[in-house]
């Protein structure tokens, strides 16, 4: 009973910490969170993996032969206000697993706590390791079936913005004897073209609008971004933009959709124009439908597309 209570307390602490909000937590504009500049520099080791990957997973059967490969989705995000990394996998057979990865500066090691719906445990196993050359290598003590001492070794290799490879294998303590048991080949789903990235931002903007998430909406703009709403003066800067998108008390957004007609990119700037539509209710419950045209000028900052100029008018 005591062990179960300790497990529940530990798990709830991890979940609460992982989902706590902060300026580097996941938002509609940055669904995978952002790296906290005050995090240990080693956290950036996982930067190429952040995003969602479509993977092919192949593991060994009990008789030593390789089983048929199966599709797997592998999602990576920054958590704990951008100071740690969480990954989640979902295979086509329904198995789900994940890890919370923290770098502990005092020991100069990564500690990875793994969990799975197929093998729940009262103790979250920890992996140790770190960067080795261009790869990330992690270890956990494990005996071979014949009783030989050794480790289960995990290696992330060929880590690029377009994907990575993963290999799980048993090795002896000298790492001269190795027996691969699991291999995964991943391609980044969000290795989009720049136009695709802007389209994803447009969809995320509508999602934040429907959730009345003014903070996330303001995060889509540059710090010197400007709004040009019809019949009003120009609205400039993050604080004023946040105020503009904050709904009056009692109002509710019901629907919002943006349909870009054209997106053109010029180095670190881009524009898109098209049509928008939506509906909103006021505090008295009166519904108002709206539609119109828009033009947006985008600016790329640190690899992230943000809105510099936003002008629209209703039909």
Task: Summarize the structure in words.
The chain is α+β, with helices and mostly antiparallel strands. The protein folds into two domains: 2-188, Calycin beta-barrel core domain (Lipocalin); 194-314, Roll (Nuclear Transport Factor 2, Chain: A). It contains four helices and 16 strands. The strands form two sheets. It has a ten-stranded antiparallel beta barrel with strand order 1-2-3-4-5-6-7-8-9-10. A six-stranded mixed sheet has the order 12-11-16-15-14-13, covered by helices on one side. The radius of gyration is 24 Å and the shape is elongated.
Quick overview of this protein structure:
With 315 residues, the chain is an alpha+beta fold. Helices cover 15% and strands 49% of the residues.
Q: What is the averaged pLDDT score?
A: 87
| CATH homologous superfamily label of the largest domain | Calycin beta-barrel core domain
Count the E strands. Answer: 16
Give the strand content: over 45%
Secondary-structure element string:
HEEEEEEEEEEHHEEHEEEE
Low-pLDDT sequence parts: 1-19
CATH domain topology of the largest domain = Lipocalin
Alpha carbon gyration radius: 24 Å
How many helices in DSSP terms?
4
What is the correct CATH architecture of the largest domain? Beta Barrel
Total domains, how many?
2
């Amino acid at each position: 009973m005591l062990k179960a209570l300790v497990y529940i307390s530990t798990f709830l602490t991890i979940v609460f910490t992982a989902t706590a909000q902060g300026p580097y937590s996941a938002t509609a504009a940055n669904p995978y969170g952002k790296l906290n500049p005050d995090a240990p520099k080693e956290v950036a080791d996982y930067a190429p993996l952040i995003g969602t990957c479509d993977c092919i997973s192949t593991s060994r059967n009990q008789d030593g032969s390789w089983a048929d490969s199966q599709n797997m989705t592998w999602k990576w995000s920054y958590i704990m206000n951008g100071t740690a990394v969480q990954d989640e996998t979902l295979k086509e057979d329904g198995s789900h697993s994940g890890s919370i990865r923290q770098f502990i500066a005092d020991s100069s090691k990564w500690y990875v706590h793994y969990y799975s719906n197929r093998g729940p445990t009262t103790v979250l196993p920890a992996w140790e390791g770190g960067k080795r050359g261009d790869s990330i290598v992690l270890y956990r003590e494990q005996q071979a079936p014949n009783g030989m001492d050794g480790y289960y070794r995990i290696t992330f290799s060929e880590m690029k913005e377009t994907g990575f490879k993963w290999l799980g294998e048993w090795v002896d303590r000298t790492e001269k004897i190795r027996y691969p048991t699991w291999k995964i080949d991943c391609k980044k789903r969000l290795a989009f073209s720049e136009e695709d990235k802007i389209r994803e931002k447009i969809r995320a903007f509508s999602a934040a609008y429907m959730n009345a998430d003014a903070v996330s909406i303001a995060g889509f703009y540059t710090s010197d971004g400007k709004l040009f709403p019809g019949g009003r003066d120009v609205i400039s800067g993050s604080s004023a933009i946040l105020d503009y998108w904050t709904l009056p008390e009692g109002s509710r957004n019901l629907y919002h959709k943006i349909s870009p007609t054209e997106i053109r990119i010029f180095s670190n700037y881009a524009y898109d124009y098209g049509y928008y539509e939506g509906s909103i209710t006021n505090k008295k419950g009166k519904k108002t439908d709206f539609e119109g045209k828009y033009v947006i000028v985008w600016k790329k900052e640190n690899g992230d597309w943000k809105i510099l100029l936003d002008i629209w008018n209703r039909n």
